[in-house]
Design a protein that fits this description.
The chain is an alpha/beta fold. The protein has one domain: 2-enoyl-CoA Hydratase, Chain A, domain 1, CATH 3.90.226.10. The chain is built from 10 helices and 10 strands. The strands form 2 sheets. The protein has a 6-stranded mixed sheet, with helices on both faces. A hairpin with a 2-residue loop joins strand 1 and strand 2. The protein is globular.
Length: 269
């Protein structure tokens, strides 16, 4: 890519997101197959931009977020260099953009989870008004394996699935299949893969039937249940040695050196 440029109109500031208009509904499609849809800062900002466009455009009623191939969103790209950086997103670091935008959107946001849904992808799914998962979808929050004290996750996830399940997911780094994710309450609807887009579109349509002002007040009351997260602790974690080792071990496809040798697994975790 040459000449990165900031968002403008339906351009979301990165070639790896597509903003599509389908009548009164919009789609934000994550499409970066060469990197398995790993999110750059500009891509995260672009999702927030898509929500802003929908909320500011009287011709649009709601937004559907989905991925391409067998990946929804796997989390952030840990490569460190991004060809779509137009000069602003790099300052976001691990801010809660676009997660706050998803959570507080006045107009409905529905996620159609077509495959791998890890890290930031799982957060987007949880904070969507409704998340519809393909039977092929998988879910994981591996941040602790990367040396990140993700206090946003540790605030939001227990409210979504309960404390015991949040401990299990965040501390063990386990992967849930689609049936488990639905049973646990990470998502609420599970459909056959070939029916995903039709089912998610119908859910979005039904969400858009609600009275806008009443919907906004209901969403505000629901959102209060999540509370706020400890941004200062998370910022400190991202300046620490564990994050450096987490990033290096990931890029070198090995287990982090904080794991004792006698139980250290082979390869990346």
């Amino acid at each position: 890519m040459t000449n990165p440029r900031p968002p403008e109109g339906d351009w979301l500031g990165t070639p790896y997101l597509r903003f599509e208009r389908h009548g009164s509904l919009a789609h934000c499609v994550v499409d970066r197959p060469e990197k398995r849809n790993a999110m750059t800062p500009a891509m995260y900002f672009g999702v927030r931009r898509a929500i802003d466009v929908v909320n500011q455009d009287g011709a649009l009623a709601g937004l559907l977020i989905t991925g391409t191939g067998d990946v929804f969103i796997p989390g952030g790209d840990m490569g460190g260099t991004y060809d779509d950086d137009w000069g602003g997103p790099g300052y976001l670091n691990m801010d809660v953009t676009p997660f706050d935008a998803v959570r507080h959107s006045a107009k409905p946001v529905v996620s159609a989870i077509n495959g791998i849904c890890f890290g930031g992808g799982m957060m987007i799914a949880m904070l969507s008004d409704v998340a519809v998962a393909s039977e092929r979808a998988t879910f994981r929050s591996p941040e602790i394996y990367r040396g990140i004290a993700d206090t946003h996750y540790s605030q939001i996830l227990p409210q979504q699935v309960g404390i015991a399940r949040a401990r299990d997911l965040l501390l063990s780094g386990r992967t849930l299949n689609a049936t488990e994710a639905c049973d646990w309450g990470l998502v609420t609807r599970l459909v056959a893969h070939d029916e995903l887009m039709a089912a998610a579109t119908q859910v979005l349509i039904e969400c858009c039937w609600g009275a806008p002002e009443a919907r906004r007040e209901v969403k505000r009351a629901i959102n209060l249940q999540y509370g706020i997260y400890d941004r200062m602790a998370m910022d400190a974690s991202l300046r620490g040695n564990e994050y450096v080792e987490g990033w290096q071990s990931f890029s070198e496809r090995r287990a982090p050196n904080w794991i004792p040798e006698d139980i250290r697994p082979e390869g990346r975790i």
